[in-house]
Amino acid sequence: MGLELCGLLGLALVLVLARERWVVPALAVVALPEGAALALGGPVALCPLLGPALLLSAELAFWSLEGARPAREALRLSLVRILWLLLLALGGGLAALLTLGLAAVPLSGGAYLTLCGVLAAVLLLALVGWAGRRALLQG
Amino acid sequence: MGYAALVALGAFAAVTLDRIAPLALVAPFAIWLALGLAQASDPGLELEGGLDQPRVAEGQELAWSGELRCRRRLLDLELRLPHAPDLSSEVPADRLRLSPRPGAAEPVSWPLRAERWGHHQVGPVEFQAQDAFGLLRYSGQLGGAGRVRVYPAWERLRRLADPARTQLFSGNRIARQHGEGIEFAEIRPFAAGDRVRRINWRVTARTGSPFVNDFHLERNADVILFIDSFAEIGAGLDSVLTLAVRAASALADGYLGERDRVGLVGFGGLLRWMVPGMGPQQFYRVVESLLDTQVVTSYAWQKVDVIPNRVLPPSATVLALTPLLDLRSLGALVNLHQRGFDLVVLEIDPERFIGREGRAVDATALALWKLVRASRRRALQRSGLLVLEWPEGLSLESLLAEIREFRRFARRPAA
Q1: Interface of B with A in 130-149 (CB under 8 A)
Q2: What is the nearest CA distance from A110 to chain B, expressed in angstroms?
Q3: Which of B9, B17, B29, B95 is best to mutate for the A interface (most A CBs within 10 A)?
Q4: Helix (H) or strand (E) holding B24
Q5: Which of A74, A80, A95 sits opposite B31 (nearest CB)?
Q6: What would the pLDDT profile of B57-102 be if each residue is shown by its tens digit?
Q7: What ipTM was assigned to the predicted interfaces of this complex?
Q8: B412 and B384 in contact (C-beta within 8 Å)?
Q9: A81 vs A74: CA distance, rounded Å
């Protein structure tokens, strides 16, 4: 509880000081006790709710630190962003649910399964690397 | 970057603790990151445009306008036009926010106002854009920089101070020498070579011997504008230099209108000069040269000896605009006077600009400073220079009238 409070205070301080780069670390401090509690036997079913909530908090925090703009002018833009944010939060929740669901499948270990896992991890790393490089080159 | 670290942390925790919860917790961030990175691509922004006028006068309006095209949809595009502080804009913080449609030309315009004379740079346009997820931010510059020349505002002078000496070229000034002209000078006895049409028949008939009418020649003069730019007091439009530049523009306009030749000497940390010339082109040359006038700090002892002779032709009239703040310019003025130039010093009173920035001025220091300037003024006057103070509220035209009056009534001291 104390750590969560520290994280919230840190987040408030980050928002007041408008330090964009400290938003994610502050959120990580808020989420750390929850993550630890879930990992050490807490109610895992809360993950699909907690993850999108953290994402929404982070995005709204970033949003609040962006340059202010007259509300009437930015109304359409704001609606588009809110829509995107909600859709992605929903998608994130579904992804968390899928992760939990896949983890709950009673599969026993073995060489093939381990190989599949290694291949999946390598593919994932390659995908992230490719997307990151593309973003760096074109962004 | 923060999201990537968070996802990595979640995955690491899931593997080390052998629990799926940390991974499920960061799954929304991973989805966000993957989608954002996958759709990252060059926004393909193109901006064509520039300033609508290459030169304006102080107080006039101009605009930077153009057309923006982008290849893909951007959620929030911010354009910023950097420009010199002497140009003002009605656009808040010079930032425009747009949501351009892909492929369509979006008109972009920044209305600007020229506040102060000078050469001012405008652009290049800087942009910042975000992708649809707000995950990637693009920034850079579009197009090139433009330059605008802002001419100083000057008063039109109806009457100028006549230069003491004229030159050899024909002009509008009545020379002391007699010859072919239209301004009557005197009647004198006929001499061999005089034209018959010049004979004054009435006087000839009365005296019995031939007399002719004599006329003054009409010649032009050389006027050199001497700008002292060693020191500056005030800022922006309320400054000694602005006043000097405006006065020099007015004088150049007036004397060139009288078909005189006008030259320029910028005497400061940077010594600049311009050979005297005539006509409207010379006016633009002088003003363009004045636009570069600025105070350059230098401790080098500048002398007028380095100025070529053709810049300071013999019998030229030198009109010096100085605040009498730097000893180097005083030395140069005395030097010019000793070389026989017809020199008039217009002393711009810098006191009016003191304290305008809101800084308190110590009364004792100000009194001492005034004494120093007064002693310098008297030293110049004792050397035989015509030094006229230009106080606040007095127009340049009135100052020129003072020069005319002084020349009319002044008597040279006995040698």
Answers
A1: 132-134, 136-138
A2: 17
A3: B29
A4: helix B21-38
A5: A95
A6: 998 999 999 898 888 777 678 888 998 888 988 888 778 888 788 8
A7: 0.82
A8: no
A9: 10
CA B240 to chain centre: 12
Instruction: Please name the residue of chain A whose CA is at the shortest distance from the CA of residue B131.
Output: A139
Query: Rounded to an integer, what distance in angstroms lies between the CA atom of residue A40 and that of residue A18?
Result: 34
Please state the domain extents for chain A.
Answer: 2-106, 109-139
Q: Which amino acid belongs to residue A82?
A: I
pLDDT < 50: residue spans in chain A? 70-71
Distance CA B199, CA B177 (A): 19
* Cβ <8 Å between A39 and B23: no
Q: Is B403 on the interface with A (CB under 8 A)?
A: no
Instruction: Kindly give the interhelix angle for B240-257 and B396-409, rounded to the nearest 10 degrees.
Output: 60
Show residues of chain A in contact with B132, CB under 8 Å. 80, 84
For tokens 């006057």, name the residue.
B381
All structural domains of chain B, each given as residue ranges with its CATH number in brackets, are 46-151 (2.60.40.10), 184-218 (no CATH), 222-409 (3.40.50.410)
Q: Cβ–Cβ of A134/B3 closer than 8 Å?
A: no
Q: How many CB pairs under 8 A join A and B?
A: 128
